[in-house]
DNA sequence: TTGACGCATGTCGATATCGGAATATAAAAT
DNA sequence: ATTTTATATTCCGATATCGACATGCGTCAA
């Protein structure tokens, strides 16, 4: 058995820098593959393949218009990542950490 | 060239379910490898290898005590992931999205 | 109809995984 | 000194990538 497929889940899909770059390049707009090739500096096949992975995990949606394809980011697909990593936020966020301590004290006081 | 190494950055390190599981298994405690083997159901070499990857990207810290090794999560290493994914939060958070619209309107009003 | 354009897909070689089994290292116990 | 315990490392076969290049397919233009 080898490493999990990049299309296995969102975590695997965004592990590649180029794919995060593509998502950032699209941003809040609707982009054509050609525009992304220009913005990213990647080859056209590369962009298409990376978009294929992003599409497979639901991170982008496509709309066909003639021979052009308009891609847009579908952010909600990132929620699993956000939810998972958010649980660790208090580890570097001092304010949340102090809130944690406070809640711990309150729980310790009440029998 | 092949896929980036799992030790290349935090994104690659957490792309594996087993490694996220280990981080969650450690939680806020300090764990020994044996405890993690028991909790995760993975083999001992597996656990050691995954911990090696997590250690390489700074996601865990170790402390030696005799022949035992105490591992703990070093959360701040996750900040790059959090920061990146947080930019997309407004895509699924309706309240933030409306705030975005409001800010856009305000900016459109002022010349 | 022929050709140019926009994008997707296939092939290839190189590589870095993954799990499993065996082995190595190091410390404690007998 | 030997053996057991706790953990790390190595070797193995299988596999899914990645980039580069070539090709296929649908669409618009001349």
The largest sheet of chain A, given as strand count, sense and whether it forms a barrel, is: 3 strands, antiparallel
Query: What would the CATH topology of chain A be?
Result: Arc Repressor Mutant, subunit A
- CATH second-level architecture of chain A: Orthogonal Bundle
Determine the strand fraction of chain A and express it as a percent band: 5-15%
Q: If you average the pLDDT of chain A, what whole number results?
A: 89
Query: What is the terminal separation of chain A in angstroms?
Result: 51 Å
> Would you identify the regions of chain A where 5 or more consecutive residues have pLDDT less than 50?
none
The oligomeric state of the chains shown is homodimer
- Shape summary of chain A: elongated
Protein architecture, described:
With 111 residues, chain A is α+β, with helices and mostly antiparallel strands. In chain A, 53% of the residues lie in helices and 13% in strands. The longest helix of chain A has 16 residues. The model of chain A has no long low-confidence stretch (mean pLDDT 89). Chain A contains six helices and three strands, in the order H-H-E-H-H-E-E-H-H. In chain A, strand 2 and strand 3 form a beta hairpin. In chain A, 28% of the residues are buried. The radius of gyration of chain A is 20 Å and the shape is elongated. Chain A has a three-stranded antiparallel beta sheet with strand order 1-3-2. Chain A binds a DNA duplex (30 and 30 nucleotides) through helix 4.
